[in-house]
Amino acid sequence: MITPEDKDKILTHIIFEFPDLRGNLYYENIASKVGLSENVVRAIIEHFCKLGFISILSHGMRTLITIKVSAHDFMSRGGFKVQEELIRADINKFNFESEPLLKNLESSQAKII
Description:
The chain is α+β, with helices and mostly antiparallel strands.
C-alpha cells in the first residue's frame, strides 16, 4: 500500500533534486534513492501530475519534469502526512459533535441513521 509518507518522500526528493523547477527525470534513480519500486514511483508521480504539482513531457527515452509552485506550497504546509492527520482530526471532530445529537434521537430514529 502506498502511504502518505511514501508520497512525501518522493515529492520532497523531486523538489530538492530540481531546484531550478525542471530537469530530466529518471524513475529508477528516484526509486533507488527513496527505497521504493520503480512502478510505485511512476504511479505516485502520475498522481502528482493529476494533482497539478508537476508536469511531465516525454521525448522518446527522455522524460522532462517541471515542478510547479503548488508542490512547494503543499510541502511547506506539511505534505501528505499532515493532510492525512487533518482528515482524521476532522472525522474525529464530526464523530464527537454528532454523538450528542444521536443520543437525543429516539432509538427508532437512530436506527434509520
